[in-house]
Specification:
The complex is a heterodimer of chains A (about 110) and B (about 110).
Chain A: E1 5-7, E2 10-13, E3 19-24, E4 31-37, E5 43-50, E6 53-57, E7 65-68, E8 75-79, E9 88-95, E10 103-104, E11 108-112
Chain B: E1 4-7, E2 10-14, E3 19-25, E4 32-38, E5 44-51, E6 56-59, E7 62-67, E8 72-77, E9 86-93, E10 100-101, E11 105-110
Parallel strand pairs in B: 2-11
Antiparallel strand pairs in B: 1-3, 3-8, 4-5, 4-9, 6-7, 7-8, 9-10, 9-11
Classes of the chains: A mainly beta (about 110), B mainly beta (about 110).
Chain lengths: ~110, ~110
């Protein structure tokens, strides 16, 4: 069964450093998403991406965040200058037509120290 | 603003029991509702997807129902097993393609 692959599974970074989280969505999917889950809290939507541009973003997704699909297969989330409160599990997801086939990756646990 | 609530927050049952997890949402204008399973420190596994025009979906020992007008969904697990121990998340979409998640029900099935 097709999977959404996320790397790395765990990343530790120093506060203030830039970090890039990587995702390989399912190959024929058109919509791409990032979510995050702070420990013990709800899974929260960050951003959706379609046709090489952001289609929707939440209030969490401020200027410190950016997304990119650099080569037609990878989908990345960049955090420019990490803060302690960015520590969370970050999930990538992709879908075909809208919510059809919506599949989540296994997540990247980001720890900011 | 859509809010999704799950009750109970935690549940512990002996093996073999049938159980019901509840999900409620404040805005009935949803596109679909999905139940996920999350094991500790792991990703999200889709269990059942119910489109807004549907009333229920079944997969094996799992049955999910949807009552849009009352803003409720239930996940029924028959003959629970220790391997069912996990957190169960309910999430809805409405118009856009983002999911809004509940806080989850942490289930423990005792052998």
């Amino acid at each position: 069964e097709p999977e959404v692959t996320q790397t790395p599974s765990h990343q530790v970074t120093q506060m203030g450093q830039e970090v890039i989280l990587r995702c390989v969505p399912i190959s024929n999917h058109l919509y791409f998403y990032w979510y995050r889950q702070i420990l013990g809290q709800k899974v929260e939507f960050l951003v959706s991406f379609y046709n090489n541009e952001i289609s929707e973003k939440s209030e969490i997704f401020d200027d410190q965040f950016s997304v990119e699909r650099p080569d037609g297969s990878n989908f990345t989330l960049k955090i420019r200058s990490t803060k302690l409160e960015d520590s969370a599990m970050y999930f990538c997801a992709s879908s075909d037509l809208g919510t059809y086939g919506y599949t989540f990756g296994s997540g990247t646990r980001l720890t900011v120290v | 603003k859509q809010e999704v609530t799950q009750i109970p927050a935690a549940l512990s049952v002996p093996e073999g029991e049938n159980l019901v997890l509840n999900c409620s949402f404040t805005d009935s204008a949803i596109y679909n509702l999905q139940w996920f399973r999350q094991d500790p420190g792991k990703g999200l596994t889709s269990l059942l997807l119910i489109q807004s025009s549907q009333r229920e979906q079944t997969s094996g020992r799992l049955n999910a129902s949807l009552d849009k007008s009352s803003g409720r969904s239930t996940l029924y697990i028959a003959a629970s097993q220790p391997g069912d121990s996990a957190t169960y998340l309910c999430a809805v979409t409405a118009g856009t393609y983002k999911y809004i998640f509940g806080t989850g029900t942490r289930l423990k099935v005792l052998a």
